[in-house]
Structures are given as C-alpha cells and as structure tokens.
Design brief:
Helices cover 45% and strands 16% of the residues. Helix 1 packs across helix 2 and helix 7 packs across helix 8. The relative contact order is 0.11. Strands 4-3-5-6 form a four-stranded parallel sheet, with helices on both faces. A two-stranded antiparallel ribbon has the order 1-2. By secondary structure, the chain is of the alpha/beta class. A hairpin with a 5-residue loop joins strand 1 and strand 2.
C-alpha cells in the first residue's frame, strides 16, 4: 500500500507519515522504490476493527487532538493493529451523552478502542466500559496509563457550575463556580457561599 493511502487510513497527514518514514519511526515496515514511491507493508492481524478515540474538554484545546491521534495510531501500529477509523470529540469527560462515543460503543464490529489516557474515554467508570468491551470480545488499549491533571480542573468547574446553577440560577452559575474554584485553591470560603 502506498504511504499516502496508509496515512489516510490511519488518520494522520501524509506529511506526518513521510516524516516518520524519513526519521525511521514509522510504526510499520516500509520501503522506498527506485521511483521514490514509498510502500507500506500492512498485514491484517484480525477481522475486528481498531478505532482510535481522542477527546479534549474545550475548544481551545482542539489543536491537541492531532497529537493524541498520532500517538494512538503509532501505538496501535506498533502492536500490529491497522486503525480503521479515528474519532475526535470536544466535550467533558463527565458528559455521558457524547454522540460520537455512543456511536462508537454501539458499533459491534469494533474490537479494539485505542485512547491516549483512560480519562480521554471517560473520567469515571472506564473500568465498567472496559468490562463490557471484554464481555463481547473487545479490548481497551491505553497508550499512557498515567492520569492527566489539567483536564480534571475543567471537569471540576463543570460540576461546580452545575451545582451553582441549581443553587443560584443559571445566569451567575459559571461566574460563581470559577470564584469557588479560585477560593478553594487558596484554602478559604467564598463570600456569599455558605459553609455547610
């Protein structure tokens, strides 16, 4: 298969794949013909699909999606799995109504889901999802098992915003949640907030 076709099937740009080949870091065997064409040797390991899932919490983090996808594809390829699809999403890890994730989980042809960190799939309860995948013969492959801390702050703000919206109304909920987070990090109680 040509390098350009392989790159497209893996969800990475041709330029990235060419750089990997040039640097000797391409995760699959490849050779260059005398004409300059680069051919990738791809062997199918199993019939089930391997899908990469990448997520960030907010739109300002959207540029990080490309790096997540590239690391997950390289990880899958290094283990002999050809990635069938890449799914990227912007949304909180605590939101259980992410459409793309729900579609992915409902697809019975998916055998492996590759994520960079376990919390990219979901913030809490990933072990239940992993057990459900295993029950139907699937697996969750995690590139890096360590937890990300910066995204946890965004999720905490989302939870506080929700609680503040119930207590104070929607108009001032976000402002009060950010104020509460600032005060909590300083170790005090915010003015206007009850200590219960």
């Amino acid at each position: 298969m040509k390098l350009s076709a392989w790159a497209k099937s893996q969800g990475v740009s041709y330029r990235t794949a060419w750089e990997w080949f040039k640097n000797g870091t391409l995760p699959v065997p490849a050779r260059q013909l005398a004409t300059g064409t680069i051919l990738v040797d791809v062997s199918e390991v199993s019939k089930g699909k391997t899908v990469v899932y990448a997520r960030v919490s907010s739109h300002d983090q959207k540029p990080q999606l490309d790096g997540q996808v590239a690391r997950c594809v390289a990880f899958a390829n290094a283990r002999g799995f050809s990635v069938s699809e890449t799914i990227t999403e912007v949304g909180s890890g605590m939101n259980g109504h992410r459409k793309k994730l729900l579609r992915l989980l409902g697809d019975q042809t998916v055998e492996r889901i590759v994520v960079e960190h376990r919390d990219r799939l979901m913030r809490f309860g990933a072990e239940y999802l992993e057990a459900a995948l295993a029950a139907r013969g699937g697996t969750l492959l995690v590139v890096d098992a360590s937890e990300l801390k910066d995204d946890l702050v965004q999720d905490m703000i989302s939870v506080l915003t929700s609680f503040c919206a119930r207590l104070y109304g929607r108009r001032s909920a976000k402002h009060r949640a950010e104020k509460a987070m600032a005060v909590m990090s300083a170790g005090g109680i915010a003015p206007g907030m009850r200590a219960e």
